[in-house]
């Protein structure tokens, strides 16, 4: 099951990099913003997978 999850993560990262590269070809500052937002989303997902944060 973990290998299947890892394959999906790799596919997701490759698609995201292609999208950011496509945006960078048009307008570099927008690509930097999209990359930053994607980094925040990635960090939030990693924290949620580990069960971090307080739950009420």
TrEMBL record:
The keyword Transmembrane helix is assigned to this record: yes
TM segment ranges: 6-28
Keywords, alphabetical: Membrane, Transmembrane, Transmembrane helix
Name the UniProt record assigns to this protein: Secreted protein
């Amino acid at each position: 099951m973990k290998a299947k999850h890892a394959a999906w993560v790799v596919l997701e990262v490759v698609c995201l990099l292609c999208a950011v590269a496509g945006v960078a070809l048009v307008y570099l500052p927008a690509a930097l913003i999209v990359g930053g937002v994607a980094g925040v989303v990635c960090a939030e997902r990693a924290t949620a997978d580990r069960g971090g944060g307080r739950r009420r």
